[in-house]
Amino acid sequence: MRGPQRTREESWIGRTLDERYKIQEVFSETETHTVFVAQHLRLRKQVAIKIIQQEYASDGEVAARFSREASAGAQFDHPNVVGIIDCGRLTDGRTYLVTEMVRGPTLREFLDEHGRIHWTLACDIGSQLSEALIAAHAVGIVHRDVNPDNLRLEIRDDGSYWIKITSFGIARMTGDALVDPAHELGSTLTRQGMILGTAGYMSPEQAIGEEVDESADAYALGAVLWECINGRSLWVAESIEDALAQQLHHEPSLFDTFEDGPVPEVLQRVVLQLLARDPRERPALIDPVSPTLRKLAHGSEFEESLVTAMPEASASGMDNFASSGGFPFEAERGGTVVDDGFVFPTGPAGNSSMKAVFGQLADVLKALWRSASVGTRVVLAMISLTPVILIVVALMVSGSSEKSEADEPETVAKPDVAEVLPEVPEAEVETLEPSEEPEAPAIPVDLEESVKMLFGSDVSAKERKAGAAKIRSFEPADALPIHVRASAALVLEKKCKAKKAIVNRIRELDALEAMPVLLALDSDRKSCGKRKRRKDCYPCLREDLARTLGRFEVLLELQGKTPSQ
Question: Residue 270's closest CA among 313, 309, 326, 327?
């Protein structure tokens, strides 16, 4: 007697793709694709696999969206964007996409269940979303389809909510993000006059088929924020035409009145300006929208003028953000302390400069100035002018002494550079190539055994720690390659946030030698805390660790190696 017949989707359960992804369950299904939960057999972690439905296998537009989503996701990493791990083709020619696994409801499902969310949580979600969009815009990507169905909410161990953008299927890519000619404007998905997006969240210019820029995503952010706070859609329409008619002939209404308190006027101004019909009137996400939402979410004081003025983002401001890697506002810059006296710079080794230091200091002073009251600004101005006054006085004194000694050549007191740095002949400087990087120092003979213990694939945790401890105590530290010092620090560090910073630094270095250390950390899931209530000692770094392992696995495969080699 036969049991119940399995559906087409269920027939995938238990199958293994590409000898490394074992499908475990169906996660979600749409008209064009199915998302499965799978186990990455080599990395021993769950991933999501999106597979095109059989009936759409020959649909060029659906295939193009998959390709575009993979290409856009590969251009940048951001904690509020679902990471792309891999992509490929099945034996029947269909495309599949492997991403990080994000469990949690879509924002649409969350709103359908709860009706609305408090404006402080909406600001927190909006701040995260704006940071992700800023990072995408910095590399030439405009999402064009920001709506509650393309956003997922993760609930963290501490009870906080984390928003994730899940799809870049109709993103517009320009500049450096344009990695395939098929993605150019004028292609099947992006030609002018073709309407792409979701009714009610598309900006008016997008809804009539015009070319769009970053301001279209700003409009969508405003529509999402309005819906989160009010618990209902901003534009209720059955078609794109109806939604467009409302957008062109009606002003967005103000927020409703709620029993748990009124919505701040400054937030209403932000949202209404994001929803401006004219894209030129919409405020820039990088400043002031993102910092304003962040301060509203976390209860910080701020100047009302920042919101009423709504300055446009300058090109230099966007360039600076792009060069910084698109970090969130709270991210530390300039270096992360991971051990006593040991600092990892955020850029490649050897590229630190006084210019970078002063640039970071300027960012801090700008943030202080923006959040300071009038009285505090006066104090900051006096403090900042003190060095200038002292320098002027010193120059005046030195000038008066020079006048009394007319025969003396003009001199300015300078530090003795020779005492700090050895003098380099001019001819020697001319022969140096700017792109040259110093070779990594060799492993000292007396540390070779410790390094083997640190990077061994079959050593115990105790042996690995012993090797790491000996490496950390070695002097001088600069005599060791940075990936060795970083790996030793990762093994010995106990705090989750510090470990997370080291993992990200190892990823920036593409230090594939650290793979055994990362795999050991990935498998370390022991309980900790009072009475061992926490099931995982390091929950804050799992996402970054998974992204690093996924990247390293791809790099190792390109080199024809396995993670254990």
Answer: 309
